[in-house]
Amino acid sequence: MTQTPDLLDQMNDRSREVFRRVVEGYLESGEPIGSRTLTRTLSEKVSAATIRNVMQDLEYLGLLDSPHVSAGRIPTQLGLRLFVDGLLEVRDLGDDDRHRLDATLGSNTDDVAGFLDRVGAALSGVTQGASLVLSPKHEAPVRHIEFVSLAADRALVVLVFSDGHVENRVFTPPPGQTPSSMREAANFLNALIEGKTLSEIRGEMGEAIAMRRREIDTLARELVEQGLAAWTEEGGQAPERLIVRGRANLLSEEGQAEELERIRELFDDLERKRDIAEFLDLTREGDGVRIFIGSENKLFSLSGSSLVVSPYMNADRKIIGAVGVIGPTRLNYGRIVPIVDYTAQLVGKLISDRS
Q1: Which CATH architecture has domain 142-225?
Q2: What is the pTM of this model?
Q3: Is residue 37 helix, strand or coil?
Q4: What is the pLDDT of residues 20-62, one digit of tens each?
């Protein structure tokens, strides 16, 4: 945030300490922090009235808020962002947390899907939050594509990759498609896609679709725009798979019925595999862990949750997936950040070693 350096410059040592103590107290307890509480913890001895004046100044800057007239203060979203960017002290990864995450490797590391399931469960258990793991896409070049009509509203796309991998994906075709039009669509795509990965197909065909929209068969166009039938039935093979674990952990954190409903909607969206590509896009702006607080990202703005997310890479240092933790905005960021970072390194190492 461009505002945070300016705000830090406007704060003297006393203001910074009061602000830090309020945020740390809130993150630990979830309750507003009052001036009398702070008089017992500040490094310098000052009166409660002096602390109240400092807190009013911080409220004027938009960093603190008072939920009730007589209550203490809690950090605003801007305040949490300032704290995370400028004052957060990230802890070292604890030995117990490291051992629990290392144990996810288990005995069968060849089973990547099983490994990622275990990672999601372990990450949720270690953090007591909700974990998200986005599994890697299959990035080998495509050799052949074929469509099979199953019903009026269901069809199967068979993708054959150059490394011998075969994926069958069930999807909903545009209305009015016939077996004949599906064969024509497959012929059109096969003439263009051989030797290209799915990501390359989407990128390179974007301009061609814009230029030749009327000429390109409806089915072929929509399949490319949708990521070659990326919407699959439950249990089907997906190009990207989002593993959600620990939903109950997050739901139990919230007491308000309205907040509970917003969080349920968030997880319903995630579990229906909406915006999975956006989840991965969150991690593309630079390496390392990123923190999104509340409305900073539209995926989590409605629920008012925070997301701590990190990408993992293959042997070629290419981002192929991501791991993250969702929780209330009062997450213990100092502890969660190294856990997410280590988990991403663990997954990336396994993927790289296998390749």
Answers
A1: 2-Layer Sandwich (3.30)
A2: 0.70
A3: helix
A4: 999 999 998 888 898 888 888 887 788 888 998 999 999 999 9
Task: List the structure tokens of 84.
Answer: 């995370």
DSSP H or E segment with residue 312: strand 305-313
27 contacts 332 by C-beta, under 8 angstroms: yes
pLDDT in tens, 328-341: 888 889 999 999 99
Residue 337: Cβ within 10 Å count: 23
Torsions phi, psi for 255 (to 5 deg): -100, -30
Q: What distance in Å separates the CA atoms of residue 304 and residue 292, rounded to the nearest whole number? A: 10
**What Rg value do the Cα atoms of the chain yield, rounded?**
25
CATH no., domain 3-87 = 1.10.10.10
Query: What pairs with residue 305 in β-bridges?
Result: 328
d(CA 245, CA 116): 11
Domain range summary for the chain, segments of one domain joined by +: 3-87, 95-137+240-354, 142-225
Q: Which CATH superfamily is domain 95-137+240-354 in?
A: GAF domain (3.30.450.40)
Cα distance between the two ends of the chain = 38
* Percent helix, percent strand, percent coil in the chain, to nearest 5: 50, 15, 35
Distance CA 73, CA 48 (A): 13
SS3 149: strand
